Amino acid sequence: MIYLKLIWSYLKIGLFGFGGGYAMLSLIEKEIVGPGWITEKMFTDIVAISQMTPGPIGINSATYIGYAAPMHAGYDNPLWGLLGSVICTLVVVLPSFLLVAYTSHFISRHKESIVVRGIFAGLRPVVIGLIASAALLLMNEANFGSDSREIWISVVIAILSLTTVLFTKIHPILVIILAGIAGLVIYY
């Protein structure tokens, strides 16, 4: 049954998705695109939409994929998709909720401990590596195009966006809107 598979996948994502949305992108992609619930193109679209909508990417993708997977599996009634959305959203946040509820007291009590400091010092480079992995994962044909013209245009837009956010005081939301307008003008 599709719901049990979704629960198992999002339970793994919720348990092992350290470092936030970008860090868990490769795990989400493997768990969701791998079984064929959505295409790689749909996955990159979900990432883009998740960045423009409020909320964490893991939750946004869980909500969307929870809706899309049952529909893709042949459940025609939208209520089955709605049920999948609710299930996936709850399951992806459950491990984090339980972990934070359990450990917050312990960490606040022992935050000066060498052991706790060591654990956090060890986790920081892992999170950076996972975020870098997500960046590489998104550098694919679905995002950058297939011919050399599309690739170069996409690279220029990416570099201009990065440098604008890093070296100016222009708000990232405005950069997203301008990049969307540029894509609309250039590609259509």
Describe the structure in brief:
The protein contains 9 helices and no strands. The chain has 188 residues and is mainly alpha-helical.
Structure in words:
The protein is mostly helical and 188 residues long. The protein is 81% helix and 0% strand. It has helices at 2-16, 21-32, 40-52, 57-72, 78-109, 114-137, 141-144, 148-167, 172-187. The N and C termini lie far apart (41 Å). The model has no long low-confidence stretch (mean pLDDT 85).
State the distance separating the first and last CA atoms.
Answer: 41 Å
Low-confidence runs: none
Number of helices in the DSSP assignment: 9
Strand content: under 5%
Radius of gyration (CA) equals: 19 Å
Give the overall average pLDDT.
Answer: 85
Q: Helices and strands: which structural class?
A: mainly alpha
Order of helices and strands, N to C?
HHHHHHHHH
Report the major sheet: none
Shape: globular
Structure summary, number of beta strands: 0
Helix % is: over 70%
Fill in the keyword field for this structure:
0% strand; 188 residues; mainly alpha; 81% helix; single chain; 9 helices
